[in-house]
Amino acid sequence: MASLHAGLSTGRLRVYTPALYDDGTPWKKEREQDRCQLLHKIQSHYEKALERLTGSDVVRRFLLSGVCVGLLDPVSNIIVNALLAATADKASPPVAVDWPDLGDTERHSLDGLVTFLTCFFPYLADWEAVRYLLLADADPLIAARIVVQDRGTKCFRPDSAATNFALKLALRCATLAAKHPQLADAWLSLCSSLDKAVPLLSAVQPNYHHNIFNNLHTLFKETAHVLYPPPTGSGLIGPWELAATRRTHITKVPYQHSWSLRRVLLDAIHGFYLKALSRMPGGSRYHRSMLKAGHCYGPFDPVSNIILNTIWYEANFPPLTPQRELEFVGTWSLMRIEALSFYGLLSFLCTCHQDLSMHEAMRILIETGLNLAATKHYSSVMEEQEAFRAAAIAAWYPHRNPDAQAGFLSSCNKPQVLSLLSNGGQQQLSSQAVQQLATLLASGMTTQQQQPVSVSKRQFDDTMSEGSERRRAHKRICKKVKDALRIYEKQNSGDNNCYQLYVVCGVNEYVSGPDNSEESIMKRDDTDDEFDNYYHHTHANFLVTRNVGSVCSVPVLFFAELSNHGDDDQLLCCPVDIPPPGAEPVRCLFCEQAGIRIVHPANQEGFHGRTLEFEKMVRGEDFYDNGYYREVYSNHRILRRSESIANWRQGGDEEECMYLGSNDFTIKEDDGDESEDFEDD
User: Fold this and answer.
1) CA 608 from centre of chain
2) Block means of pLDDT (10 residues each) for the chain, length 681 residues?
3) Which of 543, 538, 541 is nearest to 570 (CA)?
4) Whole-angstrom distance between the N-terminal and C-terminal Cα of the chain?
């Protein structure tokens, strides 16, 4: 999470930095109390279900199968699931249903409900899911609507491909956790007929007429062979519409789930950086400056702030070594600047508003789409500059010179700057517009040439070697990406487009694994460390331009799943939308576990980490045959392992070596041996 840094917060400055070992988890006793309260609510729903089924021994004997996981209210879910079991096996021997016998079913229901939420939403701990379910009276879809509102998911659409896939995944995993996996298919088939089922279920009251059961039985039989709704369209919108009628006013959340809100904000910030990369001119000239100082706080919208900070830093703090032309930005370096921007935004708001808590500041950022220009935050230029100084300190501004950036940001809100940023309404900035901005932003300030760092001969050689190795590794990824693009181009040759790689902007090489079986060990190449875990696939994001004749399009974001062992049989490559703030989640177990923000396609089930892996996780299965060293995933493990990456402030040093050269260093005189030459392969 984040905490106020006492050493840096002097005077009015309130500087926030990562908190150590604080994920907001309440004490164990409090978590146990919450689970007990939720279990009591579930028990009350079973009491109501038993009361409504009075006089129906045929259905009551199947109540042990009536978990309260489903797409309706909890009592209706219990009745439907019991009816589904009765419909599937009317010949089963009677089972006496006494209240104590339902204890396991109630606990399984609780597990299923929690799993429904934690598989629908990323960054949601089990204890948070329990709290949302308490607010929703154990109604799974109402709980989901509360999470959507609490997280500011403004772009949430019940009929979108992302929501449809998330709902199917959550339902499958929830029924697995509740020990009745067969119910997922039945509910998905029933979706298109829920409007017929609800009136019949409402009529199920004590001593109800037997015809009602027969009508429900007939409906379930009719829908048993209905194909699932398509991934897009209104096929799965019915449950959401019914949930909206059950509770028209969404309950305000009394808890402060700051930990998960921070992760949601970091996702939004990542989207801004993808947009900024797509707006900058082609080439890698500004990559170094964006990764070092292209923060998204400033006087304009976040994307414009990234561009301005990048151009200003490049103009006033030029590199000592001429930059190589690279087709990628470092994944870890990009995540570092995103994390630094988050702490800068938080520190800016809390310095402007001294009585604002960290959680309240995050709420403002969510409501405004992280746009500081949309908040009335200061009454004078001095207060504004002070707030920007707090942001720069929190972001560990290069050279420990926060005053330079603070002074720039408090004075650059000019009509000329806005005009150049708009670039005549064009989405992508021209090289001429960027150069004019650089000239304008550098005026009145002396260019601060950096000084070479004095290092030992060994340190210098290690840095140069690391930079060369990083560039070679990234070039291998770029080659695979280009191969995937060529395949995509052939498959879509009818559109007469010629696709060109613009920049690779996110890579996770730890997909489909770890697999340490003998077969996988044989697939290792000479560059693999024998002690490293083996992973079969890589997920990557990259920007692509399309050339139609002589016209070049603005960059479009793509996703690809690449093979780590050379074959192209399982390649997946497709365009994806850059997610806006408050976008619906598209989940990937492996990328979340690695803590790497990759945008995945919402309308594709084919990539690894989306469906089967979540189901295996719920069942507690090892994904591969790892012998004694089992690798079993869990929601808790995913959250814990990715948390250190979400706090990434000091990482990315190895990737930074890619942008360094001999001009950035001087060899200490006592180590005066000549340095080696390092060339890229």
Assistant:
1) 16
2) 70 83 80 96 93 74 87 94 78 52 89 98 96 96 95 90 93 96 91 87 76 79 66 72 89 84 94 95 88 94 94 88 86 93 94 90 93 75 88 80 88 86 75 88 66 87 89 92 90 74 95 78 57 84 80 85 76 91 90 94 85 93 73 88 73 79 82 52 52
3) 538
4) 41
Amino acid making up residue 136:
A
Which of 588, 579, 592 has its CA nearest to residue 607? 588
What's phi and psi for 499, nearest 5 deg? -95, 135
CA distances from 65 to 181, 245, 656 (A): 11, 27, 57
- Dump strand ranges (E) for 446-536: 453-455, 498-511
- Whether this model's pTM surpasses 0.85: yes
Q: Are 385 and 12 in contact (CB under 8 A)?
A: no
Provide the pLDDT for residue 249.
Answer: 82
Beta strands, E only, 184-272: none
Question: Where would I find the H helices in 510-588?
Answer: 518-521
* Distance separating alpha carbons of residues 583 and 578, to the nearest angstrom: 9
> DSSP readout, 326-377?
-SB--HHHHHHHHHHHHHHHHHHHHHHSTT--HHHHHHHHHHTTT-GGGS--
3-state helix, strand, coil in the chain (%, to 5): 55, 10, 40
34 and 130 Cβ atoms separated by less than 8 Å: yes
Tokens of 677: 């030459």
> Of 345, 407, 329, 334, which is closest to residue 377 (Cα–Cα)?
345
Ramachandran assignment for 528, one of left (phi > 0), alpha (psi -120 to 50 degrees), beta (any other): beta
- For residues 156 and 582, is the Cβ–Cβ distance under 8 A? yes
Q: Which two tokens stand for residue 361?
A: 């500041």
Res 273: pLDDT:
97
- Give the bridge partners for 563, in sequence order: 537
Residue 374 tokens read as 């949309």
Phi, psi of 91 (to 5 degrees): -90, 0
Between the CA atoms of 31, 33, 39 and 42, what dihedral angle is there, to the nearest 10 degrees? -100
CB-based contacts of 17, cutoff 8 Å, min separation 6: 2, 3, 5, 8, 343, 394, 649
Closest CA to 329 of 555, 503, 554, 576: 503
What are φ and ψ of residue 388, in 5° steps? Answer: -65, -30
**Coil/strand/helix, residue 506:** strand
The per-residue pLDDT for 231 is 47
Query: What confidence score (pLDDT) does residue 296 get?
Result: 96
Please return the burial class of 355, using the count of CB atoms within 10 Å of its CB with bins 0-12, 13-18 and 19+: exposed
In degrees and rounded to multiples of 5, residue 621 shows phi and psi of -90, 145
**pLDDT reported for residue 397:** 67
Helices 161-177, 183-190: crossing angle, 10 deg rounding: 140
Nearest to 557 by CA among 573, 577, 571: 577
